[in-house]
Each structure stands twice: as C-alpha cells, then as structure tokens.
Amino acid sequence: MDFINNLLYNSVYNAAPILLCVLGGIFAYKANVLNIALEGLMLAGAFVSMLVAYLTHNLFLGILSAIVVCLLLGLVFSVMSVTYKGNVIVVGLAINMLVPAVADFVLKLMKSSNINLTWANVNDFKINIPFIEDIPILGSILSGHPPITYIAFLMIIVMAVLMYRTKFGVYVRVVGENDDAARSLGLKSNQYKYIAILIGAFCCALAGINLSMERLAVFTNDMTAGRGFIAIAAIYCGRGAPGPSAVYAIAFGVASALATQLTVSAGSAAALLDVIPYVIMGVVLTVVSITKRRKVKVRGF
Amino acid sequence: MKQSSLSSKFSGVSIKVINSLLPVLLAFFIGGIIIAAIGENPLSAYGTMIGKQLFTAKGLGNTLHYASPLILTGLAIAITFKANIYNMGVEGQMLLGAFFSGIVGSSLSTGNAIVDKLMCFAVGAICGMLFALIPALLKAFFHVDEMVVTLTFNYAMAKVLEYLASGPFRDAGAGYVCTPAIANSATFSRLGKSRLTLFFFIALAIFLVMWFVMKRTKLGYQVTAIGKNAEFAEATGMRVRCKIIILMLISGALAGIAGSGYMMSEQFRYTLDFSGSPGLGWDGMLIALLGRHSPVGILVASLFYSVLKTGADTINTYTSVPKEIVAVIQSLMILFLAVQFLNERFGLIERFKKLRAEKKEA
Amino acid sequence: MSIIRTVDLTKKFDEFVANDHINLSVEPQEIKCIVGENGAGKSTLMNMLYGTLIPTSGSILIDEQPVKFKSPIDAMNHGIGMVHQHFKLVPSLTVYENILLGTEITKKGLPLIDSGEEIRRVQGIIDEYHFQLKPTDRVEDLSVGQCQQVEILKMLYRNVRILILDEPSAVLTPQEVDRLIENLKDLRKNGKTIIVITHKLREVMELSDSVTVIRQGKVIGTVMTKDTNEQELAQMMVGRDVVLTVSNEGGMPSSDEVAYRVEDLHTINAHGAEVVSGVSFEVKKGEVFGIAGVEGNGQSELVKLLTGLMTTTKGRVYLEGRDITNLWPDQLRKAGIGIIPEDRYGQGLCQSMSIPDNCIAGYWYDKEVCQYGVLKKKSILQRAREYIQKYDIRVASEQGYVSELSGGNAQKIIIAREFESHPRLIIACQPTRGVDVGSIEFIHKQLLRFRNEGYSVLLISSELSEIMSLSDRVAVMYKGKIIGEVDPKTISTSEIGLLMAGATSQRNEVPV
User: Fold this and answer.
1) Phi, psi of C395 (to 5 degrees)
2) ipTM of the assembly?
3) B101: domain CATH number?
4) Can you list the domains of chain A with their CATH numbers?
5) CA of B49 to nearest chain C CA: how many angstroms apart?
6) Is the Cβ pair C364, B218 closer than 8 Å?
7) CA distance C283 to C279
8) SS3 state at C402
C-alpha cells in the first residue's frame, strides 16, 4: 500500500515540471518554432529563483526574478530565431548550454556546489487539503503538493482554453500551419511567434521554481536532468494539442516516478524507464509520418 | 542574373571569415565584461589563456591532443550539415562508440597493441553507425524529422549508458560509477612531455581522407549538390534517400571513432562525465558552425576550440577567474553563430531570394 | 462606368516585362474572364490588382478613383477579394474558423470566442449564396471543390464587391466545375463583379460576359463572349509572333520500329486524385513524338513518371523492349534516355555549382569523368570546355557558376550534357521555355539532328508552334488522358487548340 501511495504521490510530483514545460512548449510547437530551449529555460528558472532568494532572503523576489530572467531569455530566443531567422535548433542549443555554464560560473564564484536555502522549510510550502488528505490513494494524488504543482494541473485547462477558445490561440495555430494565410489576412505572424515563445519561457520558469525552490529549497546544476527533452517528446507525441500532450507528460511523469521507485528493488535497470518517452516519440512520429505520406508518389526530399 | 553573380562573388571567403569571426569577438567581448565585473583584467586573462596553449611546446601539444576528437566530431556534424541533414546525435553516437570500445578494450584485449587499437576503433565506429542508422532509416523511408529524433535520442542514450555503466559493466573495484580501465595494449602512449598521442595523427589522417572525399569524389560532389538543391540531386539520379543513409553512417562512424579515440588516449574508462560539459559532440557542433562546414575551417576551428578548452585550466590556475567562463563564452559563440550577420545586415541573399520568388510567380 | 480599370499598368522584373501597358476595364456586375497561356502574365496582373505585387508604372482605378495598394489588406478594404489557386486555408481549423479568421466574434466582456454565434453567421452566409458546406467540418476533410467554396465565402464574408479567382477550375472535377459556375452566376445576381483567370475555353464560354486575352504580357484583345467562339479565342491565345525557322520537313522518314512504349500509365497526387489516368503511346525510331496540352492536364506528372521522379500506381514503360518502369533517374540515363527536364533550375541544373560540375550531373557512371568514385577534375574541365565550344555556350568563365549564365546558355548546358552522352531517346520537356530566339533555333536543330540520326525524341511542350513544327505525330493530353492523336502536317492550329481545350474532334484523328 505504501508503495502505491508513494508511487501515486511521486507521479504527480514528477509530472508537474514536465507538464509545465509541455504546456508552455505547445504554443511554440503550434507556431512552428521548435523550442528545444525548454531544458535551459527551466534550469534558468530553478537557478535564478534560488540565487535571488538566497541573496535577498525573499522568496517572492526570487520567483519574480526567475520569471523575468526566463522571459528575457525567451526574448533572446525570439529575436535570434524569429526576427533574425537564425537556426532555431542552434539558438535553442546555445541557451541550453549557456544557462548551466552561467550557473556553474556563479556557483564557482560562490565556492559552493549548490545553493541551499537553509532558512526555508519545504514542508511549509505543501498544501494539505483537509479531509481529502486522509482518503487513501486519492489523498496521495490530490493532497500535500506545493502550489506550483497544483498550478501545473490547472494550467491544462487554462492552456486548452487559450489554445482553442481565444483569438490568440487560433492565430498561433494559423501562423504555424499556414503563414501565408495569416499574412494574407493581415495578421502579424512574428508577433504571435514571439508571444508563443514567451508563454513557453514563463511556464519553464514556473517549472524551474517548482523543481528547486518549492520542492527542495536546493539548487544543483544538473537538477533538470533532461526533463525539458522529455517534455519535447511529449509535445511531439501529442502533436501540440494540450490534452493529449498533457496526457503524455503525465504518463512520462509516472514512468520517471516508477523509475525512482523501482531503483530500490530493481537497481540501476530502473533508469531504463527514462528511455520510454523517447522510444514512444520515435514510434509516434514514424506512424504519423507514414499515414501522412501514404499517397505521395513523388520521389525526393 | 546580375544580382546572382554579385552575391555569389560577394559571399566568398571573406564573408565566411567575417561571419565566423564576428560571433567569436562578440562572445569574447561579453565574456570580457563578465571578467571585468569580477575585478580581473580581461585582456591579460585572455592573454594567459591563449598564450600558454600556443606558444609553449607542452601547451601546443596539449592543444593538439584535445583537438583530436573535436576534429572528428566537427567533421561528423559538418558533413551532414553540408547536405542539409541535421545529425544532432553526434554526442550520443560518440558516447556509445566510446563506451563499447572501452568495454572491448578492457575485456577482449589480445595483448597486441595494434590489433587492440584497431578493434576498439572498429567497435566505436560500428556503434556510432548503428545508432545513427535509426534516425537515418526513419528519415530516408518515412520522412521523419531527423533533427528532433537525433537530438532527443542523445538523452535516451545517456540514460542507457548510465545504466550499463552502473549496472552490468560497472568496475566493482572503483569507488564511483565507471567501467573497467582498458588494457595497456589498447592505450595510446604519450609522445613527449605533453599529452599528445598518436591519436592526433590518426584524426588528422581521417581529416585528410574526409577532405579528399568531400572535394574530389563523387560522394562529396553529390553531398554538396543535395545540400544546394535536393530536387536537382534527385532529378539527376543521386538517390537522395541512399545518400542520406550513407551520410548518416559516415557521420556516426566519425563520431564513434572520436569516442573510442578519446577513450584510448585520454579517459581509459567510461565515466558518467566522460565527455565533459558540454560534451565533445556539442563541441563538434560549434566547430562545424564556426568552420562554416568547410574542411579547412573545421580544422582551424577545432584547434581554436581546443585552445579554449585547455586554456580553461590555465585561466583557473593563473588568475582568479573560474574556468567556467570558457563554457559561458562558448555558448555565447553558438548563440551568435546561429545568425548570419552579414547576410542579414545587407539582406543580400534575402533580397535575391525574394526577386527569384517574384519572378517565379510571374 | 467601370468598377475597376487599369491604365498602362506595367510590371517589370529586372529586364523582363511581365505586364506591358495593360489596359483592362471591368464593368460592374459582369463576369470577366482573362485568358492566356501560362507565363502570359495573367497572374502578375491579378497580383497587382490584389496588392501582392506593386506595379512598376501605370495606375489602377476603382470606381474611377485612382488607388494604390501596398498589401492585400488595402485591396480588401477597397472591396477586392481574391481566391488563389493555392488556397490560403488552415487545414486543421473548421470551416467557420477559416471563414472568420482575423474577424472572430468574442463573447461580450470576455476574451473568449463565441463559436455558437460564429457558426450561426457562417451558416447564414452559406444559405444566402446556396453553398453546400457544414460550418463545423474541418477543412482537412473537405474536397478541393469545397475548399474553394470556403475561400469564396471567406471573401464574401468580408463584403468584397469584386472577386478575383485565379485558375479556379484547375484542380476541380467536372462536376465541381459545374457547381462553381452556378455559384459564380449566383454571385453576379447578388451584385458582385467577378474576374476569372483561366485557360479553359469551354468554361469561358459558359461563364463569362466578356473576355480579355493576354499574350506575352500584352492585351491582345477584348471581346464580348456572345460575339465570339472557342475557336477564335484559341487562335488569339496560341498565336505566336516568333516565326519558327526550323521544321522537320524533308528529314528522313521515321521507321516502324518501336523505340519506346508506354502502356496504361496511372499515378495519383498527394491528395489521392488520379492525375495521370491510363496514358499509352509509342515512340518509333527516328521520330519526334509530341505531347501537347494546356498545362495542368497531367503532363508534368507524366514527365515525372517517365523521368523517374514519381512512381506509378499502374502501367509499364519499355525502352526497346526492356521494362524500365519506376527506375530511378540514374538508371534511366544509363539505360539510354537523355532527360531535358521541365524546370531548368529546379531539376536540370544547380545554379550554385560550377559549370563543369553541372556538365557531368547524372553521368558519373562514365569512366572518363569518374572512376572508383573519384572525380577526374582535369577531364571534367576538359569536357566542360568541349561542350562550351561545341554548343557555343557563352560563359564569362569556364569554371563560373551556372547562376551567371543567361537562360539560353544555361539550357544549352543541359542540351550538351544530355546529347553528348549518346542516348537513344531524349525526353525533352519545355525545352525552349524562357530562352532567346537564337537558342530556340539551336535547340530545335539539335532535336531534329538527333531524330535524323535515327533516334527518338519525346517532346512535351505547351508551346503549340514548337510541337507542331517539330513533331512527326502529336498526341493531345487533357485531364490526365491522351484524348487524341493528330498529324501536325494536316491539322490547323485552331483545331488542335480546340482539342487542347477538351473538345474531342473526330476529324484528323489518326488511329493509334
């Protein structure tokens, strides 16, 4: 029973940051900008929130500056890739490399290998919902999580509404699918790409804060551990639709919870569960591509 | 047609060089600001960093040594870029090659120095090729975007290797996660005082072969054509599908050889930070961008890059600037290299393309 | 009073004059057809009327007021809407979302889209104009004809007075074309003015009130539809100013031996529609076999099939008895087929590679230029020199880029390359498009010399005069099929023009 309760709790716990990255990333995906910088942006969120909170002893300032920094990085990404038409992958990669490099640099200056908020107690962040917390199974899913975890799951609905029920959502999809159509009706397509990327940056900031500050009150430089790329796999599997992408994100969260949980019994082989998202992505991409190109008789690329 | 001759002449060597130098200078400039901000003199810091690596025999030897795998990973990425294929999986292919050549080098050693090394290289190359084959087949037969697949598969491979290194292949005697050290007969011994080994000359030889392939052979010709005009390539019978697979295999082999060479000349066993941070594959990416996909450019870029890498230690020892500054500069370089400054500024290529498009419409 | 009028409207691209002092006038509530062959400048004209292209000189008047369009938005604000040949729709969105794109209706006080109201309005406009669409269907599930209706509705919803349609029937089935004609006539009744660009004469006759014919960027004439007939229009369309100096008169008679045989060839496009449906023909030794037809009737796809760029769904191809169906381009060349492709800079040449490099493209199997996979730079350069000399190719530098050459000289590189490798059949597709008169003559002579040496030529061209003067036999393609075979020596230009427009003629048809 403990095993199941732990697993459920950890699944929610592990899914949250991936989910946030996915929900932020789908807009860029729909706008046809491949944002592989999710990992770097998330790390930036984790790092800046902790650094500022450490320096100022103010959690709120930490959160705020993390969001600002991530938005700035998102802006750099947009300027380089949308306005100056740089190779999106290379720009994303650069940000993925820049953030840990800067973090490393700062950690060295601080002569420390991590940032630790000794004065903060992570248990204070947890929201225990009265009554529900005592219900077996449901309690471990619904109760005892930090605020951003709840926000992450609420975001599924928010982002679905934003994507499907607002002008902005429609325009982002139009820009990504048929830029010509958007331009022919006078839509400023670059503007929507910018906003799509910035939404991603904002969500990644939250994911980062969730990872470092509100779960552990500790920052280490490898703490994102490829979650940004798992998020990319989830986005591609769900083809950018909020619902399916979120389902994949949660599923991958469960897989990683299972991986952690099984380490005790199965040893290091449990780490192989982390490979699942990528394999699934490869299969989904292939299947989609095959069905799309069924009728194509023209040779060539 | 006047426009085209103008732009083709203009976008000659000088533009390439400027497009490569500008991001480098910009990155160093920002790095300089950071160094100045922590109270050091950027110029003298850069001076010690670069001077020691180029103007002392030992430094130069080390530079060449660390450039060896970079030449290969740089080539691995550059040849696919040249055909407009994006093998972003060089890091993973390199790691896989390194891992299994390490296993073979430690467990299947024959004791013969030449046989062992050849065997390790072969295993490395084959592993790299096999791992590159997956995205290659998906791309060639199903048109699956190779960029996303190769990119994300790196992380899958890192996980797999982490498991293999900490589970089935772990060196039980070591206090940390690593595989057993390779046999002495499989290691390259140092030539002289520096870390330089024979591997550098092997890398150089492979570089020359690749240079010849790209410049003088049918394959090189076809790769260039595919990159420049894929429709033309297909229409004149270059079998683009086949070439994509061949190219990815070559790229994977180069990556794998880079890994096994680095294993045999530097690391001797697989550890979780075998490839450093950022890894050799990612470094290769920067080198390919910096060298603008041309062989000579890649050679120069990998030497330059090796100076940076080895210079990081010097800067750490001789100044109070943490060596991590180099990684910051490096990532800034990649960021700026993503954009072609000159074409954007003058808008030559853009304008030309627009004209062409208008003409087509008419 | 004209609702829209152009005065000396001119558009130049560098030296090339796409539209030369066009004077066009459209009356309110009429359906005006603008006809002309591909490349005549119809699309350029429409793009200027719609603000996609900015005129070099001349002016556009709407309700006799001069206007300047900087973008399609300006045009739309003046009540002009355009339905492009390639639809500007978003496949994953629904019909109503596409129609309302950019003018979404939101709920009062909320940033949310009121889809209920949107569907109601779109249903209203669909009913008003008697279209057959369901607002909530996804565009990706619609047929091409329905997509077009969505495009038209998109414009109608924006209250345009003048609707321009670019080749609206190009992608439609006959039934869909009938439906479209009905819809357009309905629109005219509702007070709209319609301009249709087309080269399908049957539709012109059924649909329009007046017709303007454009050729080589100039207006050839404007006639009232009721005062003209298809034959006259065809003549106006295909008449040529260039007098062709070469003809195949007096050459050797072709033999009866079959060199190349195509049997019941079929293929589909990416949408699954059959674009080549059952094409069969034979090319004899020492013969030029021409395939004529208005562009877009499957010739492009047929050429792609025959040159290894597309695969068949059915049918076989034989060269001198050997089955060469679905071989790759390099195998076809090796088998003895020279290919002069349709798109010179897309398929024939690589502009950003050197002349010598282009001279060997497709012929690496030749041991003189490439052995064991290694290129012999010296003999490649030597070969390029030979070609340049023998085919009188004007180059600034032997090793320069192809992009520095004029159209005619670039085409000559292809001609040299394909002829000098000694094929037994040449597939020549639009061999003289965009080429100067001198080069046209040169290329024609080469094709005939080749024929007179006893080899075969398959000539596909939309230049009717070229087909007529070079070919021994001509087949006409219409809607993916060969609808007739004629003897170019006895048939008149207007008769073949009619055949090209889809009217099957009984006379002059040679039994296959």
Assistant:
1) -125, 150
2) 0.87
3) 1.10.3470
4) 2-120+135-300 (1.10.3470)
5) 41
6) yes
7) 13
8) helix
